Amino acid sequence: MHKDNYLFTSESVGEGHPDKVCDQISDALLDAYLAQDKESRIALECFAKNNEVTIGGEVSSKAEIDIEKIVRKTICDIGYNYDELGFNGHTCKIDINISKQSPDIAQGVNEKEKKEQGAGDQGIMFGYATNESSDYLPLPLSFAHKILLKLSQLRREGKLSFIRPDAKSQVTIEYEDGKPKRIDAVVLSAQHDPDVSLDKLREVLINEVIKPVCSTLLDKKTKYFINPTGRFVLGGPAADTGLTGRKIIVDTYGGAARHGGGCFSGKDPSKVDRSAAYMARYIAKNIVASGLATKCEIQLAYAIGIAEPVSLYVNCFGTANIPESEVIEIIKKHFPLKPAEIINHLNLKRPIYKKTASYGHFGRPDPDFSWEKLDIADELRTPLF
User: Fold this and answer.
1) Are 318 and 122 a contacting pair, CB within 8 Å?
2) Measured CA distances, 235 to 50, 167, 192, 242 (Å)
3) For residue 314, what are the contacts with CB-CB under 8 A and spacing of at least 6?
4) Helical H runs in 110-192?
5) Model confidence over 67-80: pLDDT tens digits?
6) Alpha carbon distances (Å) from 83 to 50, 64, 74, 91, 308
7) How far apart are CA 46 and CA 22, in angstroms?
8) What is the side-by-side strand order in the sheet with 242-243?
9) Per-residue pLDDT reduced to its tens digit, 147-170
């Protein structure tokens, strides 16, 4: 292929994937705390294997919640609600190991008189946007998410009653001159009842899931890999271990942009791993929507207890219509970058996080996802000086 012609692949995992089960549990608990006390400081991890779940982390909150009840409901709502699956929200063992937030961390994060709220930890956060899809996500990731959303919809509606909760997808797109041309391959692995044939799965998943989502870029040469091992009956935590925060590339940009390394789920917005990553996405998306660039990657970096970011970096991959140094000045003028300002601007102290924990934190039209709004794009089109 010519240097501007290449294949690029992104994956997604469904809500029943064991890591995503843990992400949803962590964020369901976060939501419960924020619903009662919006100043809650939460860092909760979940580990799931076989029919056991362990919750661990730090909580400082005035809220009183029924952790076990929330964990069981979250698992059952996903679809793990009968013993044959090997993981059942009604019967699973739940261990809880939670302490309070370290006072050494709290003293740098708490907002005091004449002192701004500092970042909840050091770290680097990235945000990215591209105009190659309507949701400003890399197209392979956008398709991978939408395939699994369609599968989940049909399963929950009872139209694919033989499909179980665990699933993974992967989409490979051929780019020509740097732009999406066609889908070269689709991988879809869906957990299923034991009496379903691979031929039926292949027919149904291609015709009722993949084609309705991806029809515009599918062609006669597109390759389909449906349950490539031939059988996927045992899934979820019964087949694999689940852990909060292990699907950070699925959660963000599918590998098309960099990631600072910190996960999102189970963390309240004082943790810049989450809030600053949301702000970086918000900035990048508005820059691309404004027409200043067709691709944009933002990096923010923070020191624990310090309000101002220690650095702001912009990379438009040669697509910017103005020098990137001017883009940086525009960002500083139009976007808040201190933790407390980010939280206020994006209204992040709401119990909105459980639904972010599957099918990506970005690119979704949900009105609660304030970081997806394009409310500053028009302002960015006006001259800086």
Assistant:
1) no
2) 10, 8, 9, 11
3) 296, 297, 298, 299, 324, 327, 328, 331
4) 139-156
5) 999 999 999 999 99
6) 11, 30, 16, 8, 51
7) 5
8) 93-99, 52-60, 41-49, 242-243
9) 999 999 999 999 999 999 999 999
